[in-house]
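Dear colleague,

Following up on yesterday's call, I've attached the two folding results inline so they're easy to grep. Please treat them as preliminary; we haven't cross-checked anything against experimental data yet. The first protein's sequence and structure tokens come first.
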Amino acid sequence: MVALDVPLHGYAIMQKVEAISEGSVVIGPGTLYGAFTTLEKQGLIDKVSEEERRKTYALTDKGRRVLAEHVRRLAIMVHNGQLALSILNKGAVI
């Protein structure tokens, strides 16, 4: 969902996900469009335009709230992981 900070079509989203993950996440079209269906049903994204074969999607207000909550949870997990590593490394600063 983070790739939808601005309205984008599917191929652009796949490229953006790969770029922001520095290549560690590559999403195929089947996976992406399946996710779109689920996210639309949950009210997290909307199709904002449809031209020929290009559908453009954007986050809804609910989607933005859910994304913010996921980012908050991930930040907590990263913090706790850093603490655990610090303990394992006997106090070494990470």
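Below is the second protein, in the same order (sequence, then structure):
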Amino acid sequence: EVVGKTWRELKLPEAFGVLSDQDRVTVLQTGQPISREFKYNVPYGELEIEFVTNPVLNIKGEIVSFVITARDITERRQTIRAMHRAQKMESLGVLAGGIAHDFNNLLVAMLSQASLAQVHLDESQPAYEHVSKMVQAAEQAATLTRQLLAYSGGGQFTIQPLHLNKLIDESVELLRVALPKQVELQLDLAADLPHIDADV
């Protein structure tokens, strides 16, 4: 029903506003095609259309009119955006891997010094508990660093049996030190949970 009809015959807005007066003059005077892309909101989402305006020539090669061709480029644009997102994620992975590697070197030094201090302290001394928590926190930070390296392709996951309640209890102890005194943590953990295989 629309083949061969003009925009006006179809009673549509002037080329959906895709061709300005300046573009029309440019095509008719220079014969150069003009491409424009527009987005439209439709019931099922967003539609991206490319409109290409080309001159129409008579048998003498003179420009007598122009024709507008519309093409749905929604899928192509979505693919391009997805590729850009993937490239960004890859770049972030490389960056995270570099940071994790440097941070891991710092953690090794911190763990070494904290472990050395722990050896020279008696368990009855108040400082022993603080140093022990320092070692525990550094070990957890090292675990996170290994996970970052694994995600960035610079390391590997280590799957092992894990007791969730024990992990939560250990994490809560570290949280209590960092949280303000007015914040109270209350746990309601199910007893006798089975072990799970996970990377920690």
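For the second protein, one point worth flagging: The CA atoms of residues 38 and 73 lie 10 Å apart.

Best wishes,
A.L.
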